[in-house]
Fold these 2 entries.
Entry 1:
Amino acid sequence: MGKLYPISIILVLTLFFSSCQDNSTSINQKTKEDNEQIKTPSVEGKSLVFDSSNDFKGFVQNLQQKSYGELDKFVNQKAHGFTSLKMAQEHIRKKKSKSNSLTTQEEKTMHLNVEDPAFASILNKDGVFQVGKQIFKITNKYTYIFKDKGAYQNFQPSKKKSSNPSLSYVKPCEEIRQEPIRIRQDVYRVENCGGGGGGSYDPGDDDDEYTDPSDLDPYANLSKKYPSKITQEYRSGGTKGRLKGQTWHRDFFVYESIGVKSVHERHTWLRWWNRKAEKITIASFAKFSYGEVKISFLDLKNSFTVKLRDVISTIQSYPANPVTNLLNDIEQMSSNSKLTRYGYDALNSLQVKIEITKNKTRGEEVFTYDIAPKNIQETYSKVKYNAKKIRHVYDWSTAVISYPPNIKDVVDFEIDQIRSKHTLKHDGYHFGFITEERY
């Protein structure tokens, strides 16, 4: 797809709706095709506050276009005085390198596992951010959705601890159906899902057998299953070193992403440290599609905003005001009918097919949005010399933000397979392995 700008495909159609007229955080209820500017967030109570869902998504889009090293500078420029989860964890790692002593809060901050650096740049050290009046709190196991600040401040999560690993285990998304569950009057909870991003790293292949990178082909034997995380150690100069490779997928309901990373570490002074390697590489591919999502006619008619103009430069059949005309055509559809329109994504040089059907399900009129292209395959390869790590995010999406919470984003990607070859060359060693995520 050329240079990847994930929002340009995933957010082809983005709906914000509410089933309660006065409680939606979808502030911009009218489609503005011209001169809409994405506002930068404010900082309140040590967390980022976005005025609207569009502002949240726009800020994420900007973050996703920054390199890992540019993220902190960008956030500091746009939200002066804010300390993100990413910043906090990096600060704690530096502190830990000098002292074994961490506070309880610092331990909790380090335990929060958010692999996507852009999302980690939005969350504060407690995993919190705000859109409109609505507050979100991210944990490894759940995403909590609060109606407002009062609901958040009055909520007391269970403090019971258990040695049962299933209580913190992040299930694969195919094993659960992410549905918001009301646990208090003004609080909902959604179980997170994914793979390769939750819990601790696998013990790995700590043995004396190493695979020559030339013998590894991520495109070969696609039916063979590999783990999502591998750690392989070596010994050099009296100390241990290791390469940690990971292919991950995490879905926090309000934010979902897939990606890959490699990290080289050495063990000295009783702990593991990120250290520069002579050479590290990743060769990876991801196969996924964009699914269809159904929404009721009532919700669609009463309250929604479609943000299409940032993605589609033109829509055939609409010489002017394409978004407004598309919405009018959708609302005028008769039952059991289908509407198909074609647009052009100039950024990625792609033709995008927008197909809407309207029919009845159990007596209720329902719209189904189906977005093409389908069966996308992205590839990524990177070679770094004198480097500690490589990271890459393939794609991401954000959810509908409304209260009460309802459906996910209108365009939600479905993963077929992500497979990555990780290699290390350092101190006379040259080895590699393969990680993957699949459904």
Note: The two ends are 22 Å apart (CA to CA).
Entry 2:
Amino acid sequence: MTAPSNHDAQADRSTRHDDGEGSDSKRGSLARLARASAGVAAVAGVGGALYMLGAFGPVSCWTSRTSTSAGTTTVSQGCTAGIDYLFGAGGNAPVLFFWSVALLALVGVGATSAWTGRIGVTWAATVLCGIVTVIGVFSIGWFFLVPTVALLTAALARTVAAR
């Protein structure tokens, strides 16, 4: 014999919140899909941010050649990552640091909202990640691609489950 549930599915629909505990098995499987997708987004987002910060090696390398009037050429090379910004490095370090923090923030908010069933916040984070992915498709956008697809899957699953 099961205990009576005080879960109000109508209240979930009116507040656009879906905790995935409805009696329908389809709703439960969609909630599991949303949570799994939120987990994938979080792992991919953290991995991308760590890569931009330089946890797996240098991210942006440069070569500079200078010639003197005597005809000698000096070649300088260097590499930076996002974490170098905290130590005063210039070049691409501030840009990489900013986008790694932006990725962590967007994915953190999106994954948390998808996990807890906040549909509107999940969609907002998904759209913002999508905008960055499209605008930065040839550079920083690739780090946002997998988290964006995962958040899109979570947002769609939560939206369908709430209907």
Note: The first strand starts at residue 60 and ends at 67.
